[in-house]
Amino acid sequence: MSSSAEEKALTPEDFENLKTTKPPKHSVGFGGITAAMSQVSKYMNIADAFKLGRKMNQKGGFDCPGCAWPDPDDERSALGEFCENGIKAIAEEAQNKTIGANFFAKHSVDELANWTDFEIGKSGRLAEPMYLAEGETHYKPISWEEAFNKVGTHLNALDNPDEAVFYTSGRTTNEAAFLYQLFVREYGTSNLPDCSNMCHEASGSALSETLGIGKGSVTLDDLYKAELVLVVGQNPGTNHPRMLTALEKCKNNGGKIVAVNPLPEVGLVKFTNPQNPIKLLTGGTELADVFVPVTINGDVAFFKAMLLKLLAEEEAKGNVFDQEFINEFTHGYDAFITDLKTYNFDDCLKASGVSEAVFNQVFDLVLNKKKIIICWAMGLTQHENAVDNIREVVNLLLLKGSIGKEGAGTCPVRGHSNVQGDRTVGIWESAPQAFLDKIESKFGFKPSVKHGYSVIDAIKAMYEKKAKVFFGLGGNFISAVPDTVYSAKALSNCNLTVHVSTKLNRSHLVTGREALIFPCLGRTEKDYQKSGLQKQSVENSMGVVTSTAGVLEPCSTALLSEVAVVCGIAHATLKGRSKINWLAYKDDYNLVRDAIEDVVSGFENYNKRLKKPSGFYLPNGARVRKFNTKTGKANFSINKLPEWRLKDDELIMMTIRSHDQFNTTIYGLDDRYRGVFNGRRVVFMNREDMKLRGLVEQQLVNLKSEFKGVLRNANNFKVVGYDIPKNCCATYFPETNVLVPLASFAHTAKTPASKSIPITIEIV
Ligand SMILES: Nc1nc2c(c(=O)[nH]1)N[C@H]1C(S)=C(S)[C@@H](COP(=O)(O)OP(=O)(O)OC[C@H]3O[C@@H](n4cnc5c(=O)[nH]c(N)nc54)[C@H](O)[C@@H]3O)O[C@H]1N2
Ligand SMILES: Nc1nc2c(c(=O)[nH]1)N[C@H]1C(S)=C(S)[C@@H](COP(=O)(O)OP(=O)(O)OC[C@H]3O[C@@H](n4cnc5c(=O)[nH]c(N)nc54)[C@H](O)[C@@H]3O)O[C@H]1N2
Ligand SMILES: [Mo]
């Protein structure tokens, strides 16, 4: 009997032999190298590993498919810009094993859905296109041509192009992303949700409004030169390991580092640079000068307390705020100060959960430093008031004049390696009119000006059967999105679901009436087209565009590049009515870059400048104090303290990444830096909260969230006592996405609030 879509979407509950230890004192070092190498030797051929190691993040090599942290412009270590999790990411992609017709004949969709995400990921690389017909239990092989035609037929049969949804994940290169959005717009819709909607959308919204650009303002060099770096709501030791090297450099130059985080994340506390053998032996650098254990979602309160005390000092003694900068470059100062004065310092500090002693240490640093950088990631962006979090960060930087000068500015640390580039080249459900006008003048068709669905809207539309075809360019939609059960129903309501993927994932198993899997080349593989070997390009977290070209032969001859898949579908769907020669773009990616150059500003001489080994910087107004906002200035903003209150027995839960995963891809079952081994169904709790509820270490519990009268459950988790503020708890994403209500998201940006979910704990 076949199981329902909702059941298939849930990660099966399994327990290996969960073991917990005290978290280690420092990160990387020998432990990191050993962990990465064991991954390589298990799943890759060693000659390939060597080839990749030599080319990863090197000039003229390929961009690591892991995170979006930039590579140094000039000197790069001979050892490679190495990071444990980067090695794991490529080992995952460059696996020896491939799966195709035989694999899918052997395993039904139902059976595969009973595997854990870890097992699914280890099955191998997808090697040929597969099709699941209506009512069938098994995927069967299909030719590319037939598959493209199936997509075309479904799309052309819809009453309205807005009944199709086109998702993108952030590994897609500039070339593939540009062509994809071009196809979607020529087909007739703006339904272009992307992983960014669940990630840094709140940063984009807040920064566009306040500083006129939805990206960060700093370069790597600024980080080296900053006097003070605040790392807020981010776990770089796991998610952006190469950032630690930059922080270490900053520290060696005399900079101070503050970590604002409910958890004492290991990479920030002590770091051993794997490229420095002497440090390996002596124990590494103490990175954070101050650790601020803020309560979950206590950041606005923390920053408000900071702003209030700075204001008091400014009014008493002066010389705290950069009045010259404020006068010349900002708007809204008076209204901001008037509002700030309505808050009480003690209330704010209390709401932040931070002690006065720790607060004062940070205050002294902020008071005395003039070059400040604030870095952040998902700890700030995944809350209902995420946009307020980031606007408050900007308020602080504006008061200190810490924007648009050396060693100072905003640093939202992006996730996926090209998520920023995808947005730059047009993956945007609400793209600005100026961009749409450029598309019209270059390509001669009128793109829809109606805003399309973001991720949350797309799920609702599919659930309500207003959207009927789902197409995913990369990613793992069902495991990444909130409200797993509801979202699974949404996908299963579709006529057709299609995924362009490198690896099997849960989204291939939660299908519409029909489903297609399109296997594609990964970053590490060579891309041959008619005009020869192709390169592509990506933009990192700091707005630098570089080229990327794989070094391995493709793992299967049946793979197509993402560019070829997009062109194939566009050609099969739009046929004679298209104004674009899709097959020419597929044959020569230089032509795609020429088209991007004509449509997106900042890409002048794209092909030529891409030849420069370290790439080129895109223009960035905030970096040079040109604020492209409605007022033409940098805007102060007014932000409220969040109003939510926990009920007596509730805890506030954040869903975080372990050290052994890349988003929904689970590399292994350990979280070495937090001392958890062989299991992921854990809930980290404050030990006093455990005592209060009569819970002991490794007690089996169920988690429940109630939101607007709807109850959601995630069963069978084990309790792990941890240094986490009271009333807070943490679990791993994606196992607990089932608890994140679809209707709980950031105002303005619609980022799911997956870092602040009120839950209760039930003893099993
Ligand atoms: N190895 C590896 N690298 C990755 C990824 C991966 O999964 N694995 N994912 C990539 C992607 S797409 C992204 S977006 C990034 C994610 O990078 P991160 O944002 O670092 O990832 P998370 O695990 O979500 O961690 C969020 C951090 O915020 C803290 N936090 C949670 N809530 C709050 C809060 O209310 N206030 C504060 N101050 N802190 C809070 C958590 O304790 C945690 O340390 O990493 C990218 N790089
Ligand atoms: N509860 C909770 N939910 C979250 C988050 C959270 O912190 N908590 N984080 C959110 C964030 S920040 C993000 S970015 C999203 C991530 O959402 P997604 O980007 O949708 O998810 P990924 O797990 O990164 O996607 C992995 C899949 O991408 C495919 N893939 C890998 N490389 C390639 C490639 O080169 N090309 C193609 N076509 N496919 C490839 C593989 O098949 C793999 O299975 O999840 C979000 N969801
Ligand atoms: Mo992300």
Per-chain topology:
Elements: H1 5-9, E1 19-20, E2 27-28, H2 29-43, H3 46-55, H4 84-93, E3 98-99, H5 101-106, H6 109-113, H7 117-121, E4 125-126, E5 130-132, E6 140-141, H8 144-157, E7 164-168, H9 174-187, H10 201-211, H11 220-225, E8 228-232, H12 236-239, H13 241-252, E9 256-260, H14 266-269, E10 270-272, H15 277-282, E11 285-286, E12 290-292, H16 299-317, H17 323-329, E13 330-331, H18 333-340, H19 345-352, H20 356-368, E14 372-376, H21 378-381, H22 386-399, E15 409-412, H23 419-424, H24 433-443, H25 455-463, E16 469-473, H26 477-480, H27 484-492, E17 496-501, E18 514-519, E19 528-529, E20 532-533, E21 536-539, E22 544-548, H28 562-574, H29 582-587, H30 589-599, H31 606-609, E23 616-617, E24 634-635, E25 651-656, E26 661-662, E27 665-666, E28 676-677, E29 682-686, H32 687-692, E30 700-707, E31 710-722, E32 728-732, E33 757-763
Parallel strand pairs: 2-10, 3-4, 7-16, 8-9, 8-14, 9-12, 13-24, 14-15, 16-17, 17-18, 25-32, 29-31
Antiparallel strand pairs: 1-28, 5-6, 5-18, 10-11, 19-20, 21-22, 22-23, 25-33, 26-27, 29-32, 30-31, 30-33
Helix pairs in contact: 2-4, 8-28, 9-28, 9-30, 10-22, 16-19, 16-22, 25-27
The chain binds ligand MGD (2 copies) and molybdenum atom.
